């Protein structure tokens, strides 16, 4: 009986030791799962210059933005190089209700345009470049609030904009983004041609592509630049490309950008379709600035 107890005790000890060794072997043989590390601060703001960026703030963030464009330089000292010329301004509010989704609204002085917008971060760049780019999608709907006498039908007030942004943080100090876009206006200006037929001056749908970049020169300051190229050829009044160059200073809760470019509009489809300022003429450039403030809740 005593021998039986000793045998049972030895069996239990051997079983425990074997189990520990097996668990250690399993742990040693299991591949280590690395948590994805995403590239941070591809851009310091959700928007720079006249363009959106791939950035979507953290969930619970409220954003207020003031976008201002002075007049062009063409009148020189008469209006202080556009500072006292008629200006354009947009006041906007955006909020991030869930991760990766930002929704917002804004009102622009030019043609009293009221916009509803949304942006969703689809992909995020990883630090090891396993995912080499970040991708976000932006969409808006804009209503022209001018008097109804400016329109034949109520639906003529509406326009839409879609943009797919593809960005890469190439280096800690350099980021670049390419973004194809589609603009659509329910109604565009028309004229009577030589045959007596009514013909639109422009097409209702417009394609464009933009490139923006940022180079950090210090922890809080960067040089920002952008170019927007129209792709659609219209019957008349073809829009001009936009070239913009500026400086941005930012912290975790705000961004201030000042720049020069040839876009007077602020609503993206208005800029893309109706810009008649020629970047080859210095007098058709203007100064603009953006102030963006964030609160976290």
Describe this structure in words.
The protein is mainly β and about 300 residues long. It has a single domain, classed as monomeric porin ompg (Porin, Beta Barrel), CATH 2.40.160. Helices cover about 10% and strands about 45% of the residues. The protein is built from two helices and 16 strands. The strands form three sheets. The chain has a twelve-stranded antiparallel barrel with strand order 3-4-5-6-7-8-9-12-13-14-15-16. A hairpin with a 2-residue loop joins strand 4 and strand 5.
Helical fraction: 10-25%
In spatial order, strands of the major sheet run 3-4-5-6-7-8-9-12-13-14-15-16
User: What CATH architecture do you see?
Assistant: Beta Barrel
Task: Give the name of the CATH superfamily.
Answer: monomeric porin ompg
Summarize the structure.
The protein is mainly beta.
Question: Any descriptors?
Answer:
297 residues, mainly beta, Porin, 12-stranded antiparallel beta barrel, 16 strands
Secondary-structure topology with pairs:
Elements: H1 2-29, E1 47-48, E2 51-52, E3 61-72, E4 88-98, E5 101-108, E6 113-123, E7 134-144, E8 158-171, E9 174-185, E10 190-192, E11 198-200, E12 205-216, E13 221-230, E14 242-250, E15 254-261, H2 268-274, E16 286-296
Antiparallel strand pairs: 1-2, 3-4, 3-16, 4-5, 5-6, 6-7, 7-8, 8-9, 9-12, 10-11, 12-13, 13-14, 14-15, 15-16
């Amino acid at each position: 009986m005593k021998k039986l107890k000793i045998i049972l005790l030895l069996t239990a000890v051997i079983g425990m030791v074997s189990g520990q060794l097996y668990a250690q072997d399993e742990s040693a043989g299991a591949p280590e799962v690395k948590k994805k590390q995403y590239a941070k601060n591809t851009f310091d703001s959700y928007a720079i210059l006249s363009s959106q960026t791939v950035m979507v703030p953290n969930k619970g963030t409220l954003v207020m933005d003031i976008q201002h464009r002075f007049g062009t330089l063409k009148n020189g000292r008469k209006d202080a190089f556009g500072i006292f010329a008629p200006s354009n301004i947009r006041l906007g509010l955006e909020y991030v209700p869930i991760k990766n989704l930002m929704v917002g609204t804004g009102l622009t002085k030019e043609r009293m345009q009221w916009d509803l917008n949304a942006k969703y971060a689809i992909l995020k760049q990883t630090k090891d470049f396993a995912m080499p780019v970040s991708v976000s999608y932006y969409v808006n709907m804009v209503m022209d609030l001018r008097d109804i006498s400016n329109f034949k039908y109520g639906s003529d007030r509406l326009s839409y904009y879609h943009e797919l942004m593809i960005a890469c943080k190439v280096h800690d100090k350099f980021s670049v983004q390419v973004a194809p876009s589609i603009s659509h206006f329910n109604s565009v200006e028309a004229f009577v041609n030589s045959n007596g037929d009514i013909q639109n001056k422009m097409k209702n749908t417009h394609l464009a592509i933009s490139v923006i970049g940022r180079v950090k020169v210090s922890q809080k300051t960067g040089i920002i630049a952008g170019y927007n190229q129209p792709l659609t050829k219209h019957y008349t009044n073809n829009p001009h490309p936009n070239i913009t160059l500026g400086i941005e200073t930012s912290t975790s809760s705000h961004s201030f950008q000042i720049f020069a470019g040839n876009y007077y509009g602020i609503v993206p489809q208005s800029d893309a379709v109706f810009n008649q300022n020629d970047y080859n003429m210095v007098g058709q450039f203007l100064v603009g600035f953006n102030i963006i403030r964030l609160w976290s809740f």
